Amino acid sequence: MKTTEKGRLSITTDRNNKQVVVFQPINNTIWMNRNELCELFGVYMQATNVAIDAIFKAKIFRVEDVCKCQRHVKGNRINYDITEVNLDVVVAMAFHLDSPNAMLLRKWFMEQLMRPKRIDFSLLNTTQNYSLN
């Protein structure tokens, strides 16, 4: 799978030496593997694995809905080998991990939620005439 098909969520430094979040979703989400998550959050693989395990242990999401994975069935037990997670899991991880990058992402996610929504008036049908009887 090409990187462009996965979308992009990263933290970069701009010309003013300020950290900025770059978000380029594909179909309203992004997909990241464990190495990319380590880089994004600035944590080691163990912290990434613990966060992912905690999120799924708490049954916040269904693995099948938010992950690209291989399913292994052994008797009546099902194990998942998670290769990539989507934006839902990344957001949950940002609130689970304690790192400077996770804190920056939490702040950025909240800013996006609190940003006023704009109404596109060009979509409204203004050609209809109304009259009072």
TrEMBL record:
Official protein name in the record: Bro-N domain-containing protein
From the broadest rank down, the organism's phylogenetic lineage runs:
unclassified sequences, metagenomes, organismal metagenomes
